[in-house]
From TrEMBL:
This is Hydroxymethylglutaryl-CoA lyase. PANTHER family: HYDROXYMETHYLGLUTARYL-COA LYASE. Keywords: Lyase, Metal-binding. One of its GO terms (molecular function) is lyase activity.
Length: 297
């Protein structure tokens, strides 16, 4: 197997993991968790979302969280930003990096953003332009790349069109989302092969949900195709409020464990990472779908 020597894990738990939780986590606990994550060796944490609090009340304290965390100079602190108003709040909090997002499928984009694909592009272009002008790097998320809860299969040409538009705006990396966890390794190989023909594997990250238990298998394909950036969420938390049945992201600790066992470096101390996760125990009233957490309980 031709595999990279090291990969970067981008921890999205504080944003993607908490955005869909019914029980509200206090600002104090969020800050404590992020501070502990910052000491694990991880290099990138998506700490919150500046979507209007009406849509994601669990992250209504975005500015306060960003302003209160203890910044580790070796960590990039990023946040999801939907529009110029959200960017204004993100800049107020002095976020390090901006993430924009949209879907590859029309229906999911309408449900998630309340706009058509064509109607979304100019809004995101404004965000990217202003963020770059403010000296912030911009990352792009594309959801439903491998399947949509409303439309089923998503034509690859449509995925490419969205990706092309985002790269033209100036994003440096696009995270390819398996939003409902339907991708299989053969499909993953095909999609990545097609996309890497037009771009480099260095332009992409994978954002895999483990709804059907295939996230780690798909990760292997990504590694073999040269992908070296992977999104994951501590504990396997997460899910999309506009994708019925979608369970959480691949658990960061399961991903870290697999990579380390394969001799692939992440720069993350797994034991310290597990200790950080325990900040949320008792705060979230459900079992974490993390294998490592169950083993170490």
């Amino acid at each position: 197997m031709k595999l990279p020597r090291s990969v970067q894990i981008k921890e999205v738990g504080p944003r993607d993991g908490l955005q869909n939780e019914e029980k509200m986590i206090s600002t104090e606990k969020k800050v404590e968790w992020i501070n502990k994550l910052s000491k694990t060796g991880i290099e990138y944490i998506e700490v919150t979302s500046f979507v209007h609090p009406k849509w994601i009340p669990a992250l209504a304290d975005a500015v306060e969280v960003v302003q209160r965390i203890e910044r580790n100079p070796n960590v990039t602190y990023a946040a999801l930003v939907p529009n110029l108003k959200g960017l204004e709040r993100a800049l107020e909090g002095n976020i390090d990096e901006v993430s924009i997002f949209m879907s590859a499928s029309e229906t999911h984009n309408q449900k998630n953003i309340n706009k058509s694909l064509e109607g979304t592009f100019p809004i995101l272009k404004d965000v990217v332009t202003e963020a770059l002008s403010a000296g912030k790097k911009v990352r792009g998320y594309v959801s439903t790349v491998f399947g949509c809860p409303y439309e089923g299969s998503v034509p690859l040409d449509q995925v490419k069109k969205v990706i092309d538009k985002l790269f033209q705006m100036g994003v440096y990396e696009i995270s390819l989302g398996d939003t409902i966890g339907v991708a299989n390794p053969r499909q993953m190989d095909y999609v990545l092969t097609e996309l890497i023909e037009n771009y480099s594997s260095e332009n992409f990250a994978l954002h895999l949900h483990d709804t059907r238990g295939m996230a780690l298998a798909n990760t292997i394909i990504g590694l073999m195709k040269g992908i070296t950036v992977f999104d994951s969420a501590a504990g396997g938390l997460g899910g999309c409020p506009y994708a019925k049945g979608a369970t959480g992201n691949v658990a960061s600790e399961d991903l870290i464990h697999m990579l380390h066992e394969m001799g692939i470096e992440t720069n993350i101390n797994l034991s310290t990472f597990m200790d950080a996760l325990r900040v949320l125990e008792g705060e979230i009233e459900k079992n974490f779908p993390s294998h490592q957490l169950q083993i170490r309980s």
